[in-house]
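If your schedule permits, I should be very grateful for your opinion on a structural question. What I wish to show you is a protein chain and, alongside it, a tokenised description of its three-dimensional fold. Would you kindly read the sequence against the tokens and tell me how you understand this chain to fold? Here, with my thanks, is the record as I have it:

===
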Amino acid sequence: MVRDKFGINKIYYPGNNEQTSDLAVAAAKDCLEKTGVDPEEIDLIIYFGENYGDYAYVYSMGPKIQYEIGAKNAWCYHVESKCGSAIIGMDQARKYMQTEDSINTVLLVGGYRNVDLVDYKDKSVSFLFDVSCGGAACILKKGYERRNFLSAGAILDGSFSEAIVVPGGGTKRPFTPENISDPYLHYFRLEDPDAFRDRLGKVTLTNLVKAEEIALKKHGLTLKDLDFVCVLHMNAKSHKMLFELLDMPLEKGTYLNDFGHVGQLDPLIALNLAEEKGMVKVGDLIGVIAMGFGYIWNGGVIRW
């Protein structure tokens, strides 16, 4: 049932004392080793992972990553578009390299362990039961002839901005000695599950397609020009329906059933999977599709 409905063979949990930053740092180091890039070459680090990290409230992940990998010449900032952040981050890296002479090498890196925030006893958030943890990173270089990120598109519907939240710990419901032990406040919750499912379900897949079309249109392209699609993880039924809307066979896309949903990291994991398995070739036009709480639908285009 888990494999058939949720579309996961397995998910990952962090090890003892393995923080969000540790996952991101490990991914960054692995990326640098595989690409042969000297960390001192990096001009900019864009952290695109989850803001749920090592410490609450005012902790920034980017500076720690910069220090741990020895990228002493890089400055950094965080980009936040929830699970669409990788697409936004790649687009911003492209624009920085196009407009800033001093930006030649960008590290896009993220960590994710929102698996801590899923209450498996709460069936109203069962769509989060595929949440996993991990780290992902990629290098973007000015003038590199392959794997060029071309454009991004997005659709936003702010009416869902408070549809799913972790209720406690913010300014609206700060933790106090009286409520700190209330388990309801510490996990993802749907305040209105029926409305969330009914309204969101009607637009989610079509908005994903529209966001991808927006990205393609910027280069005079259409869905028919796509050779392959990398999609964030979703349940098996929705995944199949999305590919039907894209008018593409399932074998022309990735499915992260051996990873689960690693939030913002899904697009990079999917691209890496496609490369490792030889599913894409030089010159292919690849669509990258993701979405995140807010609610934001994102599409991107890469010329492989």
Observations:
- The first strand starts at residue 44 and ends at 47.
- The beta strands are 44-47, 75-78, 105-112, 134-141, 148-156, 164-165, 189-190, 228-231, 285-292, 296-303.
